[in-house]
Amino acid sequence: MSFPGLPAAMVAGCWHPYRMFSSFFRRSALAVTQLAKERTSQKTGTQSIGLPLAEDLFWHEHYLSEPYFVAGRGYDQYQPAYALGWQAAQSQSAPVPLSPEACRQEFAAHESELCERWSREHASSFLTWPQARLAVKAAWERARLPRTMVPAVRLEPETVERIQRVISTGRRVQRSYEACLGEEPEGMLRSVLLRFAREHPVLLRELEQTFLPLSPRLARKNVRLRVGARYKQVEKMVSEWRDSGLMVQEPIEGLIDELQAWLDSYGRIDTGSLPLPAAQVIKRQMLVIRGHLDAVLLLGRDAA
Q1: Hey, how many other C-beta atoms are within 10 angstroms of the C-beta on 198?
Q2: 77, 125 in Cβ contact below 8 A?
Q3: How many Å apart are CA 74 and CA 51, to the nearest integer?
């Protein structure tokens, strides 16, 4: 396609129908939606959808990245849940700002009432209360918490703990690579270990960059502290066995065990509860680690 008067390089660099029009159409659709809502609001004096325009536009932009979003469900199915959460939060007498813990307790105290309202007012909805609950809670928290405390995505504590296990196990794998290379293996095994050892920190950084914004607690909590004294006793026994020579393991065997443990820790994460980009990171890294494990198994046995 030619454009008289425009340099060829400019045309080649800029002309792409998707790039030019997708963002334009998306913004235009939102603008038209907002204008229609403003006109409706002016005529009726109220928000017919039950949400202020700013809240409605916010959730319209973000609902796809929420962990409870189910592919194939449109915003119109989640919007009543956001409206219910926001409206219920406005009726609370306690002033804001609240702490996150106080906000959770407040929501829990009213959850049965909200469940009844959902069943009564939205009986025809495709979402049951367990499916709508997290969207209601998200809108409640956005209304009741200071905006600096409202996470873009809320991860369940169990999911956070399992992600922490993946990260901590990954750090142990890095030490296992270093131990194997310290034994100065030769040939193809050494080349593979060197390559995997260079790739490994990249995987760890990607994990941290993906999940720390979703749950800052990952940076402050060590999963070993959750296990308590029993874990420390077991770790002490293993250390004593190693020191006494009763439990001797070759570095390559230790690496294989750690890689398998790392892969298993990924498998315990429910990717369906994660935002789509984070779930894709988990699935892709599992494939990479499986490749590392298979290669080390094959070459390690040959070297032995």
Answers
A1: 10
A2: yes
A3: 17
Considering only CA atoms, which of 259, 294, 261, 296 is closest in space to residue 176?
259
What is the predicted pLDDT for the residue at 147?
60
Rounded CA-CA distance 92/130 in Å is: 23
Spatial separation of the C-alpha atoms in residues 300 and 165, rounded to whole Å: 26
For 114, how many CA atoms within 13 A lie in the half-sphere containing its CB?
A: 28
What CATH code is assigned to 157-303?
Answer: 1.20.1260.10
pLDDT at 224 (0 to 100): 40
Domain residue ranges of the chain, discontinuous segments joined by +:
23-149, 157-303
Q: The tokens of 52 are what?
A: 């202020």
**The whole model's pTM is what?**
0.46
Torsion angle in degrees (nearest 10) through CA of 30, 36, 38, 40: -150
Q: What is the mean pLDDT of each run of 10 residues along the chain (304 residues)?
A: 49 46 49 48 45 82 84 90 93 75 89 94 92 93 71 71 91 90 86 91 87 63 41 49 51 91 92 77 92 89 60
